[in-house]
Write a structure and sequence with these properties.
292 residues, Rossmann fold, Alpha-Beta Plaits, six-stranded mixed beta sheet, four-stranded antiparallel beta sheet, 13 strands, 26% helix, 32% strand, globular, disordered C terminus, binds adenosine-5'-triphosphate
Length: 292
């Protein structure tokens, strides 16, 4: 994984009150990271520090990409914008000094990826909160970005708007963007984020990945002739360990997704493999080995 920005021992206080204490974290390319925590836990402060909008009292921010270009979208969404998306984005882009031709191409691209072409000429003041949120993100993306920082992008949106925005953020990630966002509720993020960082008492800790693939995988140990090719199995398995028992037989320990387990077992039987053990990966290793 390529790190794009790394924070080392970041601390911040306001009027003598410590908000962040010795926080270290990395943001990787093509990842969506969520910062979760209670009101006032320091999420926005940390976002602003990552985005270069606030300075830490101590610590180092190391940009691993020399041309790291960060877009920042604050929590507050302005409600009274009388322009249409086309007008608003065009004005904002012009203020940022983007050339006309480049700007129009970029607006077209953004309207497409945010699925907003039909609303191009409707006044933003008439938009739903979700659509306004999209406009704010598009504004932050008028310039090419590597990293997008979103403060509470999903808050106040109804379920449909949340899911719509999640889809958009997922396509932005697929197009190469990294995203750091804050959120109160982890359940909103289930299908979206790669990592969740919890901020509490000025410290950041990483929770188990929300995708929790560990719990949906099995570990299989089998013995198979050394002459047999494993090529057919490779799409399903991740090899953890492999050793020769003698010249003819090798033993493998592999993990396989729950849904691929039957296919794997069937393929192993066709290959005259001997299945020694099958257990969910969330069983402790010691328990696993005592089954021999
Ligand atoms: N500019 C500031 N001046 C003084 N205190 C500040 C400032 N910015 C934030 N704080 C304080 O720092 C603490 C952390 O604030 P921050 O906004 O980072 O938390 P948060 O987790 O984003 O909260 P919320 O979920 O309510 O948005 C709070 O106690 C807040 O009052």
């Amino acid at each position: 994984m390529n790190t794009i920005i790394e924070l080392q021992n970041i601390s911040k206080q306001y009027k003598g009150k410590k908000v962040l204490e010795n926080i270290s974290l990395s943001v990787y390319a093509h990842q969506i990271v969520a910062l979760v925590g209670k009101n006032g836990s320091g999420k926005s402060t940390l976002l602003k520090i990552i985005g270069g909008l606030a300075h830490p009292d101590a610590g180092v921010i190391d940009k691993h990409l020399p041309s790291l270009n960060i877009g920042y979208v604050p929590e507050v969404t302005p409600s009274q914008i009388l322009f249409t998306p086309q007008e608003y984005l065009y004005h904002m882009g012009t203020i940022s000094g983007i050339s006309r031709k480049q700007l129009q191409q970029r607006i077209d691209y953004l309207l497409t990826i945010f699925n907003m072409q039909e609303a191009r000429h409707t006044r933003i003041v008439h938009f739903s909160k979700g659509m306004k949120q999209k406009i704010m993100i598009m504004q932050a993306m008028l310039e090419e970005r590597n990293l997008l920082i979103l403060d509470e992008p999903l808050s106040g949106l109804d379920a449909k708007a949340q899911s719509d925005l999640e889809d958009t953020l997922a396509s932005l990630k697929d197009n190469g963007l990294s995203i750091v966002l804050t959120c109160h509720e982890t359940k909103l993020l289930k299908n979206l984020v790669d990592r969740v960082l919890v901020i509490q008492n000025g410290q950041v800790s990483q929770t188990n990945p929300l995708h929790d693939t560990e719990n949906h995988q099995n570990r299989v140990i089998f013995e198979i002739s050394s002459q047999k090719s494993l090529e057919e199995l490779l799409p399903f398995i991740e090899i953890q360990q492999q050793r020769s028992l003698n010249n003819d037989i090798k033993e493998l320990i592999v993990t396989v997704k729950q849904e691929d387990t039957n296919t794997l077992l069937l393929a192993l039987l066709h290959q005259n493999a001997s299945i020694k053990q099958l257990l969910p990966t969330n069983q402790k290793k010691e328990e696993f080995y005592t089954h021999f």
